[in-house]
Every structure is written in structure tokens, then in C-alpha cells.
Design goal:
CATH class of the largest domain: Alpha Beta
Largest sheet: 5 strands, parallel
Structural class: alpha/beta
Bound molecules: flavin-adenine dinucleotide
Helix content: 10-25%
CATH architecture of the largest domain: 3-Layer(bba) Sandwich
Shape: globular
Number of strands: 26
Strand content: 25-35%
CATH topology of the largest domain: FAD/NAD(P)-binding domain
Oligomer: single chain
Number of domains: 3
Radius of gyration: 22 Å
Number of helices: 9
Length: 414
């Protein structure tokens, strides 16, 4: 009898797993179930669409025909509401049930709402789907004033959308710098200046105490805890994700702010795997549990999960140094690995607008941020992947050209 694989989620993790499974097991039944009404699209590009810089067509990656051509059963607009891991069966909001031999959970997260009054008022946007991007694009095009909340990578996307759509916006941040866990004041200053150039004003030591709305329930302003009021007919909120694990809460699948998996993408329950943003995985490069919220990492996790599901064994480990680049400004920006973890950092400003920080743990590179000049990215990622001990030469990580061989030769005993 042929095997039956069910995948929940048609983001890049789920879709890559489906492709891998079909290649590895041509006879198997493969089903992909997604809550969304459209097949896989490029989530990375929806910000460019919302900025008004990109038509819709290049955002799409797969049409339903792609699945049909490969005999993959794609179920759009279908929410999985429960899983019975003993019976190897899941159920959907419409009351349908699907049996599986092996199951992949690739359900990612949903943007969290601010815990304040009127946080879901008209005009307040959260950003995850193409559908969100369409609404954001239209609203930003109409708006004159804006507020963005959330000093991370997605918040910056919302700020850049305001800049591109000529919305006079304030970017409210809790601390004294954008992405303060990964950047120092010097690095963040490059971003603050670039935001100001786009007409977005960073406001530090701020946040939202409450929103004001008009008689129709549309947002008109955000008021911060000091009582400062920022007019806004457009608000973008990006304060993190709530992981989509509700439908497995009655199962023994172990979760701890995400689904726990080993390096083979296996959960704590036999025949159940997870991949993508939803996982807290054993990171073999870092040597501890970690989480990645990046496209490349989700894609690779999906493929690795697919290969392991096809054999039911420990065929392939997930070993990856992720990267995330930002293209909103005239200069390049890239973060790699885990720039907010580790126990030591080294950094340098080269000239105005060119900055680098490398994060280390136990003398080994685990992440970093490069602004202005990305030439060293490949060498730094190689050092991270190889786990080279660089503890006595950390300053050399900041040389304009990083020579991997010099590190590895010196690290090899005579
Ligand atoms: C605006 C934006 C910009 C980004 N920019 C970058 C970037 O520049 N670089 C980068 O590396 N990463 C970027 N990312 C992050 C990257 O897109 C994600 O890390 C990646 O898409 C995660 O893929 P995934 O498959 O794990 O999850 P998702 O893409 O979130 O897919 C999960 C899918 O599961 C579905 N689902 C959830 N629950 C259920 C259920 N119960 N039943 C059925 N279906 C369900 C969801 O509807 C969704 O379609 C960006 C993300 C966003 C939102």
C-alpha cells in the first residue's frame, strides 16, 4: 500500500516538503491543507507589493495547477482544527477528517495584537499574508499620517511602506534604538537616519497606551504612555508572532513557544514532524535550541522534513546558518545566524553608513549584522557553519576582508 503524507500549511516550509516528498516517493498520497485562499506565494516580496513598487504577478510562486500536475491534493481555505495522534487522523473546520501515515505541521505564526483598547480598530494593520499586503497597500495609499509599532524586522517593513507611500509617520519604539537586541547604538543610528530620510520619524522610549478612534471606529491617533499623541489614519503593528499551535493543544506533541523538534524535524510524537517558523529546533551549529524566522531556513527545514518523512528515519540533519536581508534603503543590510544570542560581540564602524557586528558564543561565530558592505557575509557564515574557535583573533572578524582559511589553518593543531 502506498504511504499517505499530510502537510498542514502551504507556506514555503510546507510547500517545499510537498515537493520533496513527491520526488522521494512518487507513488505516495500527498495532501497539503492551508487556511489561506491562495497557493504558495513569496512572503518576502509582499512588502514590495505593499510599497507600490511591485505588481502582484511576481509575488505568486505556485498556481494550483502546479500541485495538480504533481498529483498533490491541495486544499485551500481549509483550517485544521484538531489532530488525533493515536488514530493518525486530523479534522478540519468543515468536519472533514484526513488520515495520515506521517504528518507535517508547518503552520507558522499569526501576528500578535497590542494588549490595549481598540487594538483591532479599522485602520490598524498587522502584516503576514498577501491579503494583508493588499489591504495595507490600499490603506497606506489613502493615509496622510501613520504610526508604526514594533522595533524589529517586520516593523521596519511597515515603516518603509509608510515612507514609500508618502505617509507622514512616527515609528514608536520602546527602547532607545531599532532592533536593540541585535544592533548597538552606532549600528541602529544608520537605520534611524535612513528612516528620517524617508519621512518616518523614530520616537524612542515610547509605545502605545491606547488608540483613539472616530465615530465610525476608524483609528485617528495613538497615545503613548507619557500621554504624547500621534495622529494616524494608518497604523502598522508588528510586535511578534503567536505560533499557530492551538489545533494540537490536546495532543502530546511537545510545544514551548513553538513546536519542539530535533535536528531531523521530528516532534516528540512518532510520525509527526514540524518545519519552518513554527519550530523550536535543535540547532546543530549553535549547539542549543533555537528558532529562525526566515524564508531560506523554512524552505530548508521543509525539504529536510520531507526527506526524513519519506524514509521514516534519521536521513538528514537540518544544519543551516540563516540570513535575512533588507532592501528598503540605498545601502544593503544583512543579518545572519543568531545575532541576538551569544555571550560576546565585536563591532566596528568603517565609515558613515558602513558597520559590522559579529556575535560569538564560547569563542565561535553564531551570528551578526552587516550594514553598508556585505562582502564579509560568506566568510562569516562559513566560520559559523564550521564552528571554528576564533576566540584569540576576534578583531580579525572585523577586517574588511575576512580570510576563512587563515582562521581554520591557525585553528588546526600541528
Ligand atoms: C512581510 C514579511 C516580510 C518578510 N521578509 C523576509 C525577508 O526579507 N527575508 C526572510 O528571510 N524572511 C522574511 N520574512 C519571514 C518569512 O517569510 C518566514 O520566515 C517564512 O515565510 C515562514 O514560512 P513557513 O512556511 O514556516 O510559515 P508561513 O509562511 O507562515 O506559512 C504557514 C501557513 O500555514 C497556514 N496555517 C496556519 N494554521 C493553519 C491551520 N490550523 N490549518 C491550515 N493552515 C494553517 C497559514 O495560513 C500559512 O499559510 C518575512 C515575513 C513577512 C510576513
Amino acid at each position: 500500500m502506498c504511504a499517505s503524507y499530510v502537510i498542514v500549511g502551504d507556506g514555503i516550509a510546507g510547500s517545499s516538503a510537498a515537493e520533496t516528498l513527491r520526488e522521494a516517493d512518487p507513488e505516495a498520497d500527498v495532501t497539503v491543507i492551508t487556511e489561506e485562499g491562495e497557493a504558495l506565494y513569496n512572503r518576502i516580496l509582499i512588502k514590495e507589493f505593499a510599497k507600490g513598487k511591485l505588481p502582484a504577478a511576481p509575488v505568486s510562486i505556485r498556481e494550483p495547477d502546479w500541485y495538480a500536475d504533481r498529483d498533490i491534493d491541495l486544499r485551500l481555505n481549509t483550517v485544521v482544527t484538531g489532530v488525533d495522534t493515536d488514530a493518525h487522523e486530523l479534522s478540519t473546520h468543515e468536519g472533514d477528517t484526513y488520515g495520515y501515515d506521517r504528518l507535517l505541521l508547518a503552520t507558522g505564526g499569526t501576528p500578535a495584537q497590542l494588549p490595549v483598547d481598540d487594538s483591532d480598530a479599522d485602520g490598524i494593520h498587522h502584516f503576514w499574508t498577501f491579503e494583508d499586503a493588499r489591504a495595507i497597500k490600499a490603506a497606506a495609499a489613502e493615509a496622510e499620517t501613520g504610526v508604526v509599532v514594533g522595533a524589529g524586522l517586520l516593523g521596519l517593513d511597515l515603516a518603509a511602506i509608510c515612507g514609500a507611500q508618502d505617509v507622514d509617520a512616527h515609528y514608536l519604539m520602546r527602547g532607545d534604538a531599532w532592533w536593540r537586541y541585535a544592533l548597538s547604538e552606532d549600528g541602529a543610528a544608520v537605520i534611524h537616519d535612513a528612516l528620517r530620510e524617508k519621512g518616518v520619524t523614530p520616537v524612542f522610549g515610547s509605545g502605545v497606551d491606547h488608540f483613539e478612534t472616530d465615530a465610525d471606529g476608524h483609528v485617528t491617533a495613538a497615545v503613548d504612555p507619557d500621554g504624547d499623541r500621534y495622529e494616524a489614519d494608518f497604523v502598522g503593528v508588528a510586535i511578534g508572532l503567536d505560533f499557530n499551535t492551538e489545533f494540537i493543544q490536546d495532543t502530546p506533541i511537545e510545544c514551548d513557544n513553538g513546536i519542539l523538534v530535533d535536528e531531523y524535524m521530528q516532534t516528540s510524537v512518532e510520525d509527526v514532524y514540524a518545519a519552518g517558523d513554527i519550530t523550536r529546533f535543535h540547532d546543530v551549529v549553535l549547539g542549543e535550541r533555537a528558532q529562525n524566522g526566515a524564508w531560506g531556513s523554512a524552505k530548508e527545514q521543509g525539504s529536510v522534513a520531507g526527506r526524513n518523512m519519506a524514509t521514516g528515519g534519521e536521513t538528514e540533519e537540518f544544519e543551516w546558518v540563516s540570513s535575512y536581508s533588507i532592501t528598503h534603503f540605498e545601502f544593503p543590510f544583512l543579518s545572519f545566524g543568531h545575532p541576538t544570542l551569544g555571550d560576546e560581540t565585536v563591532e566596528r564602524t568603517y565609515d558613515e553608513g558602513t558597520w559590522r557586528r559579529v556575535t560569538l558564543k564560547d569563542g565561535r561565530v553564531v551570528g551578526g549584522v552587516l550594514i553598508g558592505d556585505l562582502a564579509a557575509q560568506s566568510a562569516l557564515k562559513k566560520l559559523a557553519r564550521r564552528g571554528v574557535d576564533v576566540s584569540d583573533r576576534t578583531e580579525r572578524l572585523l577586517e574588511e576582508e575576512v580570510d576563512v582559511d587563515a582562521f581554520t589553518e591557525a585553528a588546526t593543531p600541528e
